[in-house]
What we know:
Elements: H1 2-18, H2 23-33, H3 39-50, E1 54-58, E2 74-78, E3 92-95, H4 99-105, H5 108-111, E4 117-122, H6 128-140, E5 142-151, H7 175-184, E6 189-193, E7 200-204, H8 212-215, H9 217-225, H10 236-239, E8 242-243, H11 247-254
Parallel strand pairs: 1-2, 1-4, 2-3, 4-5, 6-8
Antiparallel strand pairs: 5-7, 6-7
Helix pairs in contact: 1-2, 3-11
Amino acid sequence: MLDDMRRAIEYCERARRVAPEFNKPFALLAQLRLGGAFYLDVLARILDHVKPRTYVEIGIFQGGSLRLAKPPTLAIGIDPNPHLVEPLAGNHKVFAETSDAFFAGRDLRAELGGLPVDLAFIDGMHHFEFALRDFANLERHGARDSTILIHDCYPVDRESAARDPRDTNWSGDIWRLIVLLKKYRPDLSVHTIGAPPTGLGLVRNLDPGSCYLHEHHDLLRDEFLELDYSYLDTDMGGKLNLFPNDWENIRAALGKQGGRGEATDSP
């Protein structure tokens, strides 16, 4: 069985090298390596369990993940070029601008009716430094028991983790943010749920009063842009704090979560 798995992974890797634009080898390789529920299914379950009063999503694309936040959760989406395929519900509000522009020109706490960010999902520009700023801004508007989720932090391969944008199968270099947070913010609880296709970061124990990421942004950006993908060639799971894609483990990692205080254990 193990030999069959290794051969399947080798075939997928070979197909990726020959035709990296094809989706099926990418999706199969991701499933073979990670397994378990798709990241959107994990996100939906977290939303259902936490029942956040407020939810902020950066990078909404067609709105599929934003729609997972059901009333009465107040959900805000931020995206410079949203492509909504159907109308959103009344509890959703979308700002068609970059996240940098949003945080520079708006008061997120005011937009949330004076409440902190209970749950956030970063899935915007797939360059590490953008995700770094998004994380720092969201943490500042959260609470100690809030949660920030980060998509695309467990890349399938070097090709999909490149900084040059791809039309398909592009996770970018968001993985660098996990490494950075582990090194410079040991106060945080940082996990990468092994949810296909490219992982789902889960960060807890936030410190809204911390200015470290803001004050050292340029130095941190420059340091981690120098880190080559080959850093992940050995012990990738350990370096990115890979966490089992199993609901009981995820629920335990969520701990005591800020929200409406109505969370129940999903069956």
